[in-house]
Each structure stands twice: as structure tokens, then as C-alpha cells.
Amino acid sequence: DSGVTQTPKHLITATGQRVTLRCSPRSGDLSVYWYQQSLDQGLQFLIQYYNGEERAKGNILERFSAQQFPDLHSELNLSSLELGDSALYFCASSHGTSGASSYEQYFGPGTRLTVT
Amino acid sequence: AQSVAQPEDQVNVAEGNPLTVKCTYSVSGNPYLFWYVQYPNRGLQFLLKYITGDNLVKGSYGFEAEFNKSQTSFHLKKPSALVSDSALYFCAVRDISPNQAGTALIFGKGTTLSVSS
Q: Per-residue pLDDT averaged across B71-77, rounded?
């Protein structure tokens, strides 16, 4: 168990809908990362937050957004869902954003999103 | 741009034999390299990392990796494979693009390791 929790584990929804995925980082970790894993694209970085502020952006669609709250948990919002958004969404956390403590990321179990 | 390549989709090895999972990277500057393992229906688990120092890095579950700067490789190895090592293995490099202030990782496509008894 990595100490990173994600809810829900599974989510089935229809095209055009909006969903929210939730992540709680390991105790003491300030950075949260979101990744998308799909068969065709592999594992891709979406976005990183550090202590409540956006730190880095990857291949995140404009229909997707995220935030990190004062208690450090994070939410990934996916809207106007399309069939191609079906994937496994992982959250990861690390202690800092620089130095050795930032280099190891600990992953949650993921949320499997199915868009029908 | 930074990238990671795992040239083999699948590696098959018999239990007790040594295993190697290959990874090559392309970065500007010094690489920060990682190996993660993913078991079915689970998240990724950190195995080991290379930041600086000895080229041979030891990690969890008896795995080790050898950093080779001249060949831009970071192959994962284990002297004696176990059936329980069967999983999906990812090599990753830290994204140090000029427009990236964070510490995101760039992952390879993954290599499925199958260890037979």
C-alpha cells in the first residue's frame, strides 16, 4: 500500500457527462500528480500541483481541470466526456518539488473510467 | 525533447534465470531515471532510481539497474527471476523540459515480464 488513496475505483458514465476523481496523497506529501494510462497512449502526465498551486502541465485537455485543496487532497475534473477518455487515471504524490525528496513518486491504485 | 524507449513489449524468462528489461533514454543534461512495476489491477510501485553516483543501483525485491551514460541505457536486471516477478515494468525519466517547473515523469510504453515455472 503506497499510502495514496483514490476514489472511486471504477466509474462508468455516458458521453457528454462530467465526473470528478479524487486523490488523497501520502501523509506529508505536498506534490500531487495526475497521470492517464490508456492502451494507445501509454502512461501520460496530465498535471502537477504543489501545496495548492499548479506546478506543471502535461498533455491535459482543456476539458479537463484539476485543483489541490488546503488539506492537500486533489480532484481531477473531466467534462464533456468522449469515448476516448476511457482510461485508468492515476494520482501520485511526492514530498517536495525539488531535491531528492521530489524524485520518488508514489502511486495510488487508480480510477478506471469507462465512457459509454 | 526527453523520451524513454523500452524496445521490448514482452520478455519471457524461466524461473531462476537472470532477467534483463531494457530501457534507453534521450535527455538533455543529466538524466534522473526510474523503474516502476505494475501488477494487474494495481498502481505503479517504485523499484529504484538513479540520480547520481554509482552506475549500479540496487532497489526493491532484488532488482538492480545499470546506468550506462555512453549507451544512454538504464537496463533493469535481476540475477534470479521469480514467477511472482511477472508484471508490467516501466522505465521513466524526469521531465526537465525548459517549460516544466515541476517534477513530472515521462514513461516508456512498458515491458511485460513473464516468468515461467
A: 97
Tens of pLDDT, residues A4-58: 999 999 999 999 999 999 999 999 899 999 999 998 888 999 999 999 999 889 9
Nearest by Cα to B88 from B47, B27, B32: B47
**Residue from A72, A32, A35 nearest A48 by CA:** A32
Q: Is the dihedral of CA A59, B30, B46, B73 positive or negative?
A: positive
CB B104 within 8 A of CB B38: no
Q: Would you give the DSSP letter of residue A63?
A: T
Work out whether strand A87-94 and strand A111-115 pair parallel, antiparallel, or are unpaired: antiparallel
A vs B, Cβ pairs < 8 A, gives: 69
N-term to C-term CA, chain A:
31
* A90 grid coordinates: 492515476
Which of 13-72 (B) contact A at CB < 8 A?
A: 32, 34, 36, 41-46, 49, 51
HSE, side-chain direction, 13 A CA sphere, residue B69? 11
Contacts of A1 (CB under 8 A, 6+ apart): none
Whether residue B1 lies within 8 A of chain A, CB to CB, comes out as no
Measured CA to CA, the distance from residue A39 to residue B86 in angstroms comes to 19
Q: Evaluate if residue B61 carries a pLDDT over 90.
A: yes
Measure the CA–CA gap between A28 and B114, rounded to whole angstroms: 36
State the pLDDT confidence band at B94, using cuts at 50, 70 and 90: confident
